[in-house]
Amino acid sequence: MNKRKYIMFTMIIIGALSILEWGISFSSIFLIVSMAIVYIVFPMKDLCSKNKYLKMIYNIYKVIIIIFVSSFVLLEGLILLNISETKDVDKVDNIDTMIVLGAKVNGTEVSNTLKLRLDKAIEYYNKHNSVNIIVSGGQGNDENITEALAMKNYLVSNGVNINNIIEENKATTTLENIIYSKKILDDMNNKGKVLIVTSDYHLFRGRLIASILGIENEGLCSISSISGRLYYMIREYPTSIIDLVKSIDYAYL
Fold this sequence. Notes:
The chain is an alpha/beta fold. It has helices at 3-22, 26-39, 41-48, 52-85, 112-125, 147-157, 174-187, 200-212, 226-252, and strands at residues 97-101, 105-106, 109-110, 132-136, 165-168, 194-199, 217-222.
């Protein structure tokens, strides 16, 4: 088996496994399409080698692919590095305010992803019960209540003092989570460090947006399964780039 056939065979196996694990989803389609556009570089080189104009197109395409692959590897590496360097509850400083970023609500109940985030917040609250907890999340089309209210209900049912909880119930994106939470922080005249609580794969983006918007922050994350982490890390590539551009635009332009 020559090198190209080996690469193609490997890509087909990876694509098939992604569909078996995640179904026809954004992450599996993104992964398959990305591998395909990268693989095209090899046959395209042969086809374009005999014509200078086609060769120019090939060189431009190759540069685009190099930028794409490099940026993807860089971002995923930063996400993993952020996860590995995130402190556990026992090692996080005493912080006055935390922001718990919302996730899907099933009817009126928190989803498993959101439950894990809230459990991590409760773990910190049990050691620092004076902390203010901003629960941030609006209401999706398939949700019966806001994510903020569902989070508040879950926290209270698990022993958190209702007076410590502040609802931010308008945000529908991660960027809005941070923007609207920052307005609450400003109203509270909170100038200190803020603890951002979310899932492991999501923490880098949340902290990056907060830093761009001028919020000094530290992170605390729930741990996802390996499959879940891979699935959402792939999704983080386009969403992180979009939120990075929007955050800079909001903060500086």
